[in-house]
Specification:
Its cofactor is Mg(2+). One of its GO terms (molecular function) is guanosine-3',5'-bis(diphosphate) 3'-diphosphatase activity. The protein has 889 residues and is an alpha+beta fold. Helices cover 54% and strands 12% of the residues. The protein is built from 39 helices and 17 strands. The strands form three sheets. Strands 9, 10, 11, 12, 13, 14, 15, 16 and 17 form a nine-stranded antiparallel β-sheet that branches. Strands 3-2-1-4 form a four-stranded mixed β-sheet, sandwiched between helices. The C terminus is likely disordered.
């Protein structure tokens, strides 16, 4: 096979004829690498290519070794690790052990240094260790990783007898007996899984290290070699640990992951095992996936990856349980304890009574998960039963789904007080959930090519159910007390779990996934004998699952009419309770790292306002004047209690717009009024920073004489300080002053907490505002890598809000540093006044809402003004496209 890469005879002849060895070896490596690339592109099996590259490296290393070291040198060149397995990808590590015998000459060190330098000079990145036999045994005995490398070792050159002594000295009878070795490697796997949060579906998985990656196969191989002395995974079939079909699945999974890794190394030109956004599009094209009405090619490629990882992860789980029984328990299992006529427990694990249980009683395929919920003392399912589930899950067909017993079992699983999340996850791992709900199969492993959704759709769905379950468990009350209180009031918690299961089930099918999913949910609920009321409620929740999030983040919820329309669409307090919990769980589970106190406050305030509207009665909505009067009365009460003259407050309030009182709570109005009344004009600008518990962030409050570009300057400074602006409230008095309130979060999503950081923010802004002339409003911050791979055209839309005497501008653009600063400069250039802003970042997209007027505080009417804003914004933002990105807003 090596002849496909290198003419060995010609190489040896050139070497013996006196040609300089350095260019000869370097050229051989380069020619071999290019030949491998062409073979890969021509579709040569990757299983052949990884071994072919190992053969090439074998040949060159042996030639160099035997050319440099005297024949009689008592030293051996040994391949270890992946190279020892004879598997090398284009940029894989080349790990070597140079084993020194008792008679190694004193001059060997000098020769070895020369040899290793030669390896580097010809372009081989070699990892090496030089040890005596005693040193190898000592190191391997204290480090299971070193022991693992030696298990996979392979002699390249040197005395066979010396290598044999090494194998004997590190055998299970000497160091790391197979039970200790298995426990150590199993612990390593658990630690590795924890590093990746135990999930297969990270957006940028590591093809080698992530759960379901190549390391899972290697883990199996190490145990097989250590315990059984087997050389290949196929021997697992002979030992009856794998069926022939399972072995085929294992090899097919390995072959696919090898192809991905091989392609990654060729694409990047380095040892890169992460499937980053940087490479996903190119890989999808290389693997033949194209865009169509069913989705993007990149999403199809990643779904193929995730489904492969899921299959591999299932096999890994089953085999490790079998190994545990054989290696740790040494097949000494406790006597079985009957649970019912189909199941029994043995040594803490659930198993079937006999191998024909699922054939005789197919409903047991669902009953298994109900039993696991009802018996929390069980640690898991025995491997032989997992295999039978996999073997007979095809029995879950239309006839099975139509069985009243099956429907009752499934609903009972959702109604249990404990274990719902665990067992739905187990159902997904074993492939049962997708068999029972066929539409669920479409979302298994389905990713969405954006930065908003951090997990595949099936993983996200199960995370929502996990979040909902935590609302029902007392020990988690501290996380979301209000959610726990509401969950306790729900008459039927299983309805919200059904809504969660179906809320995204239609993604990737074309059309509106909310409407399609609602239809699926309605059919499912009716088939499962839910009442028409309950069926309609679940369907409505699926259809409207985005309503609350969109309203909270993209609409002016300080406007009583927005609250009224939202409450009217909800219709009843019970629907509001269900929708609120579903929304909180959905937003938290989309990307848990981006859930923060601000988002929590947005949804909480909308829920409370809508609840009040529903209890008051939709026929008797709150009017703007009533809201303002109530807030002013509350603020006056606070001011009077602190010794302030209400008359002075009234005088100040008369200079403000009605929007100011709608947008702020009475506590915020009282605090800001005190700050303004305490400040003489000579003390301006007034800049204050405080934590706002009600708004879920830190408020940066500015009181100053109005000036052009103030919004642009302030947002630019906050951005440069590394703060994310999530809300902006701007009110300009008719006496020429402006009150600006920005809600900001640190980059980790938390409010400003350090007093030194508070001082830094306040002094930086105040110093800049004291400058009489400022023109440099640029923001320079590092562009996050991920954002570079997503681009959308800038879009500006306008909606008139004559009832509030303003125009609403909606901006859709790539997120980037300084975006709000650029928008502010565009407003200044066009003579536009900003009164309020709702700032939302959805993955890599900025979806911001601006409430604007002309200089006379009127809605925009002149077409030239609309054209001016759109032209200015597009010119500024599109000109920055090459350097876009960032989280500062």
């Amino acid at each position: 096979m090596l002849d496909k890469l290198l003419d060995r005879e010609a190489f040896r002849q050139a070497l013996s004829s006196g040609e300089p060895p350095l260019p000869l070896f370097r050229d051989a490596l380069g020619q071999g690498a290019e030949a491998l690339r062409l073979l890969f592109e021509q579709g040569e099996p990757v299983t052949d290519l990884v071994r072919l590259r190992a053969n090439l490296i074998d040949f060159l290393l042996i030639e160099a070794w035997e050319r440099t070291l005297p024949y009689q040198a008592d030293a051996a060149l040994i391949a270890v690790g992946g190279y020892g397995r004879g598997e090398l990808h284009p940029r894989s590590d080349i790990d070597l052990l140079i084993l020194l015998g008792d008679q190694a000459p004193d001059t060997l060190d000098e020769r070895l240094a020369e040899l290793l330098t030669f390896f580097w000079d010809i372009g081989l990145e070699v990892g090496h260790s030089v040890r005596t036999l005693e040193q190898c045994v000592e190191s391997a005995g204290g480090d299971v990783t070193i022991a693992t490398n030696l298990i996979e070792s392979r002699l390249l050159s040197g005395p066979r007898e010396l290598y044999t002594r090494l194998k004997q000295a590190t055998a299970p009878g000497r160091i790391w007996p197979s039970d200790r070795f298995f426990e150590a490697k199993w612990s390593e796997q658990r630690e590795r899984y924890a590093k990746y949060e135990g999930t297969i579906s990270n957006l940028e998985p590591n093809v080698k290290e992530s759960p379901g990656g190549l390391r899972d196969i290697q883990m199996i191989g190490w145990v097989v070699k250590r315990h059984f002395g087997a050389e290949t995974l196929h021997e697992l079939v002979a030992h009856e640990f794998l069926t022939p079909d399972e072995y085929r699945q294992l090899m097919e999974s390995q072959e696919f992951l090898w192809r991905v890794r091989f392609a990654l190394h060729l694409l990047t030109g380095r040892h890169e095992d992460r499937i980053l956004f940087d490479y996903q599009l190119a890989l999808a094209e290389q693997f033949g996936h194209t865009d169509d009405e069913n989705g993007l090619g990149v999403e199809k490629f990643m779904q193929e990856y995730y489904r492969t990882a899921i299959r591999l992860n299932r096999l890994n789980e089953m085999l490790l349980q079998l190994f545990q029984e054989v290696i740790l328990l040494k097949c000494h299992l406790d006597p079985p304890k009957a649970i019912n006529r189909r199941f029994q427990s043995r040594s803490g694990f659930l198993e079937v009574i006999h191998d024909r249980v699922f054939i005789n009683t197919p409903l047991a395929l669902l009953e298994l998960f109900l039993i696991m919920e009802q018996h929390p003392e069980l640690q898991g399912v025995r491997a032989n039963t997992i295999r039978l589930v996999r073997q007979y899950r095809h029995l879950i067909d239309d006839r099975f789904r139509a069985d009243l017993g099956a429907r009752s079992l499934f609903m009972e699983i959702l109604r249990q007080p404990d274990g719902i999340t665990h067992e739905l996850r187990r159902m997904n791992r074993y492939g049962i959930l997708a068999r029972y709900i066929p539409a669920f199969n479409n979302i298994v492993g389905r990713m969405q090519y954006d930065l908003f959704h951090a997990f595949t759709v099936d993983e996200h769905t199960l995370l929502i159910i996990r979040a909902l379950r935590r609302f029902a468990i007392e020990k988690h009350r501290a996380e979301s007390p209000m959610c726990n209180d509401i969950m306790e009031r729900l008459p039927k918690q299983e309805l919200i779990y059904l809504a969660a299961l179906f809320h995204d089930i239609a993604k990737g099918r074309g059309g509106d996934h909310s409407i399609l999913g609602a239809a699926d949910a309605l059919t499912f609920c009716r088939l499962h004998n839910l009442s028409e009321y309950d069926s309609q409620l679940v369907s409505w929740l699926v259809e409207k699952h985005l309503l609350m999030s969109i309203t909270a983040q993209r609409m002016d919820t300080s406007d009583p009419r927005v609250i009224y329309e939202f409450a009217r669409e909800i219709g009843s307090p019970i629907r509001l309770d269900y929708l609120y919990l579903l929304t909180v769980a959905d937003v938290r589970s989309t990307d848990p790292k981006k859930w923060n106190s601000w988002k929590s406050a947005l949804l909480r305030d909308l829920y409370l306002a809508a609840k009040q509207a529903l209890l008051r009665g939709l026929q008797n909505p709150l009017e703007r004047d009533e809201v303002i009067q109530n807030k002013q009365a509350g603020a006056r009460h606070l001011l009077r209690a602190d010794g302030y003259d209400p008359a002075l407050a009234n005088e100040h309030w008369l200079t403000l717009s009605m929007d100011y009182f709608l947008q702020n709570t009475w506590e915020e109005i009282a605090w800001q009024t005190k700050m303004v009344l305490n400040t003489e004009e000579g003390g301006l600008p007034l800049v204050l920073v405080r934590k706002s518990n009600t708004r879920g962030g830190s408020e940066v409050f500015i009181y100053i004489r109005d000036r052009d570009n103030l919004f642009a300057l302030t947002t630019g400074l906050l951005d440069q300080l590394g703060l994310n602006i999530v809300d902006a409230r701007i009110d300009t008095t008719h006496t020429g002053f402006t009150l600006n309130s920005y809600l900001v979060l640190e980059e980790d999503g938390e409010p400003i907490s350090d007093i030194g950081r508070v001082d830094e923010v306040r002094e930086t802004i105040r110093e800049a505002l004291l400058t009489s002339d400022f023109t440099d409003l640029s923001v320079s911050r590092r562009v996050p890598r991920r954002l570079k791979h997503f681009s959308i055209p800038t879009r500006v839309d306008f909606v008139q809000d004559f009832g509030n005497q303003r125009t609403i501008m909606k901006l859709l653009a790539d997120d980037r540093p300084g975006l709000l600063c650029q928008v502010g400069q565009a407003f200044t250039a066009c003579g536009i006044r900003l009164t309020n802003a709702k700032i939302a970042t959805i993955g890599a997209e900025a979806r911001d809402i601006f409430f604007i007027t002309d200089r006379q505080d009127r809605p925009l009417k002149d077409p030239a003004q609309f054209d001016c804003i759109e032209e200015q914004i597009k010119r500024r933002l599109d000109a920055e496209q090459p350097s876009r990105g960032g989280t500062g807003r």
